[in-house]
Amino acid sequence: MGVELLEDFVRAERDRALGVHGICVHRAGRPPVEHRFRAAERVNLYSVAKTFTSVAVGLAEAEGRLSLDDRLLDHLPELRPIAADGFADVTLRQLLTMTSGTSHRWFADERTTAADLLHEIVAAPLVAAPGARFAYTGSGPYALGRVIARVTGGDLRSYLLPRLFAPLDLHDPVWHTCPLGHPFAESDLFLRTDELARFARLLLQEGRWNGRQVLPAEYVRRMTGERVDTSAVAYGEPYTHGYGLGVWLDRAGTYRLDGRYGQYVVVSPERRAAVTVTAHTERDEELLTAIHELVVARC
User: Fold this and answer.
1) Sign of the CA dihedral with 260 first, then 205, 249, and 93 last
2) Alpha-carbon gap, residue 167 to 164, rounded angstroms
3) To pair with 55 at 20 to 30 A between CA atoms, which of 116, 147, 157, 175?
4) Contact by Cβ (8 Å): 230, 134
5) pTM, rounded to two decimals
6) What is the mean pLDDT of each run of 10 residues along the chain (299 residues)?
């Protein structure tokens, strides 16, 4: 089954105007299948960028530069004087799994007037004990990007260029930065559908690419194994299955990368398949259902 795999999905897009730019499907042992509805241009991946930040943390851990059990302020001790009560206990793992307990809510499309966003994050009061409660925010990934800068001597994008982007032939990707020059980490990474699909395939293959182990296989497995409870989330059923190290757990044993306006990667280890979609839609949940029912379920 080749292009016919996408026939019903293509029909659904044309009938329901779901806003899809392009779709790529990779199944182990078979040629990739793709379809474009619009020109192949790089688009903002929004929160899919969080997963790229996660794998940067995994790579840095494998290189011995940090541990997920490290506390943020162990790497940035100069911030201790302004840190909120209890923030000294916040670990990198908690920032990655959205369980830091911070009251700080920020995403890259929101203007900040802080001279240094990281100072604002560290100083925000805690509303829960670190590790006790899931609350989705871009603050944690941004802080992790700053840790990568501290332990490597370069920014997040520079760190990933030779380790991830170059092996996948993702040439000179744009990643918007804060006024201090640090990539937003939680959003604003721009790639084409087919470029994101290479990253999807890399995750499906547990970090292996063209005979080379680009990402630590153990870390790729931990991305879904180290999950936190999200059953109390009130913004949609797809978000209630749990959250891992920068990925959402999804239905039927799948997991996904999830960005605003319909940027999706759905990985099914059981089916040995990964489906990548870029889009611009306000009907994200309807699009995700179509991906699952019309594509993933038929792989």
Assistant:
1) negative
2) 6
3) 116
4) yes
5) 0.98
6) 89 97 97 96 98 98 98 98 98 98 95 92 98 98 98 97 98 96 98 98 98 98 98 94 98 97 98 98 97 97
